[in-house]
Structure of ATP phosphoribosyltransferase:
Amino acid sequence: MMNSNRLRIAIQKSGRLSKDCQNLLKQLGVKLNLREQRLIAHSTNMPIDVLRVRDDDIPGLVMDGVCDLGIVGENVLVEAQAERAGGTQNAEVIKLSKLDFGYCRLALAWPQELGPQDKSWFEGKRIATTYPEILKQYLQREKISASAVMLTGSVEVAPRAGLADAICDLVSTGATLEANGLMQGDTILESNACLIQNPNLTDSNKLALIDKLMPRLKGVRQAKE
Ligand code: ATP
Ligand code: ZN
């Protein structure tokens, strides 16, 4: 059982954000023993517990108050908020800070052999993505009637596999798109990792600890500039 007096921070267990999250906590002075493959790592010098989970679970854990803070990509956060929009579950978080890692963009792409295309090409097409809600919002905004095909992985092979006409996927260098014979189009969302907080947090000790950590975070970010 977790000690509820301790500030709970959710970070990605293993993936593109893990190392940067661990480094950030270290720079904030939070000492952790992360060597063990445990779900929860207790800080040895502050009343902080770090939960290591899949990035997709982080927004929900923070929205539901299971964790007080979380570090997650804006792409995952925006998708989770759109998923909960209009429902009964809490979809709010406080964005405490944008972070200087995890940069990527969610962009449209289609088979290179088709050559450059404008938005009207997407009319009636099937677009594979892991972010159907963000894609739907974009299509609505641009008044394009196309359908989203949800895939949790291997999105970039969907056109070749005949599963979709195009994709809407995360890109950082564009190397993966190129390797899969895809041409990059419009960026739908630019994303960085960000630090989020449960908006219903009232525990004064936890809030005081966050107040103590935030100037340090600002310092770490400024030192990088
Ligand atoms: P998990 O097992 O935690 O669900 P995942 O496979 O969904 O992991 P990763 O590939 O590790 O996630 O990416 C985590 C986050 O890193 C992304 O949601 C995004 O915010 C960011 N990111 C930065 N660059 C890229 C990139 N080139 N491709 C994908 N994600 C990127
Ligand atoms: Zn994920």
